[in-house]
Amino acid sequence: MPAEAAETLTTALDTLRESVADLHFGLDLPGVEEARQAQADLLAQLEGYVLPRVRTSTAPALIVVAGSTGAGKSTLVNTLAEKTVSRTGVRRPTTGTPVLACHPDDHEWFAEGELLGGLQRLDAPTPDAGPGSLVVVSTEKLPQGVALLDTPDIDSVVEEHHDIAHRMLDAADLWIFVTTAARYADAPAWNLLRLAKERGARLAIVLSRVQPRSVDVVLKHFVRMLTEYGMGDIDRFVINEAKVTDGRLPDSEVTELRLWLAELSVDEERRAQAVRETLNGVLDSFRTRVPALAKHLEGQVAFRTELRSDVEAAFRSALMEIDKAYKNGSLLHGEVLARWQDFAGSGDLMRSLQLRRRGKAAKQAPERVLAFKAAIRTGLESVIVAAAHRACEEVVARWRHRSELGAKISEGLDSPSDNLIRHTGRAIASWQDHLGELVRTEGVAKRSVSKLVSFDPDSLALIFMVAMFSGSNGEGVPHRLVNALLGAESLRGIGAKALSDLRARISMLFDEEAMRYVKALDSAGIPDESVATRLYQATYNLEVAR
């Protein structure tokens, strides 16, 4: 690859790697574990194979020897290396730490190079070698330019081995798939072949432990299965049932496979073509694998949107409930109604309307006026707090109905915050003061009335509240009195401003309560919608770079 093209492709791949690394699937929705594993696989393949291969295209070809339990992978590697590089035996699983065998001239590439970066290099297997280790051994019996990597079983009962095997496959230039005459039709074998086909990997198949008398029948059946699966033209090698000595087969059984490796070694164009095919196959797979991650992200974002809409709907319903309460007059009941009747019936209502006398100040508000004002504030507080309680209960009920995850996120959120009552009291007291100021500054009395009477703004503001909350039909003493003093136009103007201000203050209270649910969603790690967009864009940029 020309240096300029390699640089462009590397930049696009780096951007894709960063986008994939930034993913966080915070919600345990169906399929999330598969998505997390797919993310880990993508990231490992980008960092351990794709980027190093693009940067160092002249590196030796890495051939992974893979297969199911007991297929004879390690025996095959030992035979080709003419050296016991990988442990064999009847105990399963045998290979736990991957072993890479290569020509001495290629040792530096794999011992210090970027391929399979992040794995600790060892000269020999050790009992305490962890899953992040790779044994690198040299042998002159392998041709220069190709290396064999013996992996744990793809169907190992040890989950850790299974993951290592797939990681090795993701870092391979070519695959040698080893299966036996007795197990070539088993599901694990075909699962691996399906994966190779999806990735576009260059593949060769070794059918081992074949009885000489049945080789034609077995091979014919196997080839027919491969052909039906669209893989009839891949390279195939047959190894007869033979005695294993010191972990190795008779050299005559691997003659054809050894020749195949030698041809790859000496034919640089053929080797490069095989590497390009596999690399392109991996890059092609990103066209579906990356959008699949983006789609799952979009599912998480959509779920977040649904939960957020539940919050908005519940508190919007609570606000409408309060609107309905002060429009149908239901606010004027209980203590508020009793205080109004006491205020109106005691003569304090009339005393609040004083004959105009020059130089005479208005009398101070009676105790009943203050008690009535407090009753209105308490009544409004109770209505708002009750509506908030119902909204919180509704949000939690909706989230629980959606899924167990919704129930988990909503834990401890089925009631308003401890600060709601205090904040509500302050908001209503501030609103009452605001209404008094509106009456004082904008309540210009009718000229015919203003010549005869004066009025106390605070008392009139209370009467105004009663008029506002006694229903929208415009009947009753409060409506007629305020209309007479201020005029219908002023009544409507001040009323609209006062209700709008009250609604805004209640909305702010509910917004503060709703933020508790938003914070719960944020703490769950739900991604932003832009993350999925960046993934799509990174995939597109990669296609352009290719």
TrEMBL record:
Source species: Nonomuraea deserti
Family matches, as SUPFAM superfamilies: P-loop containing nucleoside triphosphate hydrolases (SSF52540)
Residue ranges constituting the G domain according to the UniProt record: 63-195
Gene3D superfamilies: P-loop containing nucleotide triphosphate hydrolases
Domain of life: Bacteria
CC annotations in GO: cytosol
Biological processes, Gene Ontology terms: ribosomal small subunit assembly
Name recorded for this polypeptide: AAA family ATPase
One term of GO molecular function: ribosomal small subunit binding
